[in-house]
Amino acid sequence: MTIDNTCSAGKTCSICGKWYHLTEYNYGNRNNRSYCRICNKEEKAAYSKGGVVAARQYRENMRATWTNRKGNFMAEKLNKEETATLEEVVVSQSYEIAALVSLLEKKGLLTREEVIEEIKKLRRISIAGM
């Protein structure tokens, strides 16, 4: 089961193809760049060693490691069996949370009432922040 990161506050680096939080694209007095800090640093190192040609070669080599054979920079489409619907993810998370609460309660580390109170507190904070 694969969960898509497109809803989170981040994006995929155009050089290395890895997903990072948006803060990784804000550097050098500019925001929302197309490639991450790490790739920016590596590209600058390549440029200082071999100029524009070396920097271009670095980008092309890195991109070649994660792009498909057709030169498409998008990830290959997953089969329906490999993806999860929002409902499946929510149900799975609900089971996991219920299991954790149950185990913590059995070990005497907390009670269900404490969990319910914490949930109410977080909801109040969340609603107040909107």
Beta strand count: 2
Termini gap: 32 Å
In angstroms, what is the radius of gyration? Answer: 22 Å
Q: What fraction of residues sit in β-strands?
A: under 5%
Helix fraction bin: 40-55%
Tell me, rounded to a whole number, the average pLDDT.
81
The largest sheet, given as strand count, sense and whether it forms a barrel, is: 2 strands, antiparallel
The figure for the number of domains is 2
Q: Nutshell version of this structure?
A:
The chain is mainly α and 130 residues long. It contains 3 helices and 2 strands, in the order E-E-H-H-H. It folds into 2 domains: 10-66, no CATH class; 85-128, no CATH class.
Characterise this structure:
It is a single chain. This protein has a two-stranded antiparallel ribbon. The protein has helices at residues 37-66, 86-106, 112-128, and strands at 10-12, 19-21. It is mainly α. It is built from 3 helices and 2 strands; from the N terminus they run ββααα.
Fill in the keyword field for this structure:
single chain, 130 residues, mainly alpha, 2 domains, two-stranded antiparallel sheet, elongated
